[in-house]
Amino acid sequence: MNDDQLQNLIMKSSPAAFWREIPTRQEALYNEARSYSYNKELWEDTEAETVFPIALRAIFENVVRRAAKLTQLKHFNMMHNGENYPYVLVKSGKLVITAHHVAGPNHFVRSAESRKQHAGVNEWLDT
Known about the structure:
Elements: H1 3-13, H2 16-21, H3 26-37, H4 45-70, E1 74-79, E2 86-92, E3 95-99, H5 113-121
Antiparallel strand pairs: 1-2, 2-3
């Protein structure tokens, strides 16, 4: 299945409004997380460096959850099998969509049992 077919399948199986909603907050998301994390009244830069990726992840996952609510998609707050971090799962037609923060555009999510299980659900995509 080539990329165009996969994109068409995703757009056919899920509301376009869901995908339009997510980028509306992308530009501000980084600055919001940075502003919160590096708030000198809360802690010093040492703690801020720990908090920043967590705040970024939390804000991003909230954006995905809100987009699902707005478009009336079923969404669930899930916990990774290691019980170390939560994540958002959205069901849209045959698709299982999960949201995970990565460090940048050239990074992929790390291997995790929950992601392998969700990939198994989407195995019929033949990608």
